[in-house]
Amino acid sequence: MVFGSKVNSGLTDEELISKYRFSHDNSYLGELFLRYLPYVFGGALGVLKNQKDAEDLTMTVFYKIASDLRRIEVKDFSAWLYQLTKNLCLVESKKKRADTNDSKNILMDELAGKDDNNLFINEVESKEVKIDANNLRLGINTLNESQKVCIDLFYMQNKSYLEVAEATGFTLNQVKTNIQNGKRLLKTYLENRGV
């Protein structure tokens, strides 16, 4: 590894977390930080496209894990960290885009193929399509209730996946499925209307 030898390098993630929870000794957390720094920073840079923003988000992730690991049990640290990083990147990306667009325009862009929320995936070429708010609202009204609620909370109220899950009682996977299926159905609805 690039960071050289470490005092606790022989311990598994689970052992480091356990020792950190018991002792609150930051050296155990530091080991986790060093192990996952390249992945978290790389993922953040891929989404935010700005080195300073990626550095800031990386530090936010590690401040968050410092507090979260004291109070929650994590079974698969790398998967949990990946999801945490994705969620924080999504929130940050949405905040930055909200400075120049409102949430409806973000959804319209995504339906037109300009989906920046495909985290950790390279950008793809997108087609330019003009979608107006009236057609969008009509399309949303055709969705089932679960999709409607998730789309509304996520795009119109700028909630994260986690916040939508907490508000609705759906699992994180159900929220993602409702949003993805809702977007797919909206896209079909709009294409059928010639939009």
The total of beta strands comes to 0
| Overall helicity | over 70%
**Which word captures the global form?**
elongated
- Rg for CA atoms: 19 Å
At the fourth CATH level, what is the homologous superfamily of the largest domain? Winged helix-like DNA-binding domain superfamily/Winged helix DNA-binding domain
DSSP summary: helix tally: 9
Contiguous runs where pLDDT drops below 50 for at least 5 residues: 1-6, 114-130
Number of domains: 2
Oligomer: single chain
* Helix/strand/pairing category: mainly alpha
Order of helices and strands: HHHHHHHHH
The main β sheet shows up as:
none
Query: Quick check: average pLDDT?
Result: 77
Strand content: under 5%
Span between N and C termini? 51 Å
- CATH class membership of the largest domain: Mainly Alpha
